[in-house]
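Incident log, entry 3
Record: Hydrolase, isochorismatase family protein (207 residues)
Problem: checksum mismatch between cached and fresh output.
Input:
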Amino acid sequence: MAMTWNDLQQNALGLTTSPALLLVDMINGFTDPACALGTDCPEVVAANLQLLKTFRALGLPVFFTTVVYRNDQQAQVFRQKVPALNVLQSDSHWVKVDSALEPLDGEPVIEKQWASAFFDTDLDQQLSALGVDSLVVTGLTTSGCVRASAVDALQNNYQVVVAEEAVGDRNPEAHRANLFDLNAKYADVIPVAQVLSQLTALCGVEP
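Fresh output:
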């Protein structure tokens, strides 16, 4: 009988004492269905806002990502594969973080050109400089940039928690399948309420 991932021991690692929040591509281009790349996901925005407020209240680091193309040479093959990405130009409304989640001064917005928040960016260096060793990963989309960022976070030796209600995808089946894979191999996929409980316990405050 073939072995499946369900047959393997999987440890729940959770968060360390130095976590950060990584909001992946919570930008207008993905949260507004008027954009070809976007979807109507107010519940995902609301879950991100809940986490964002808690991280800020606890004084923990917050990082955003966006996708920006500043010239025709950047990510040429990716853009050939998905031509809709070409709307994500530097002067476009679509590359700005959703106004409901407006970054505060001092909260970095990492510009990327590919799926992962880590690939060809300085995110790892910025996290390391702050002593961060675990990440709560949220955002859009589960099967694309969220998955790629979570996998790369693991590959950079961060313990990863994916906040279940704070990620979304245009394809519900892809969403569910990728959450299964992430939880099986790369991260802890847990509800937002459980993330908040872990955070308050780590910081020694009442939930």
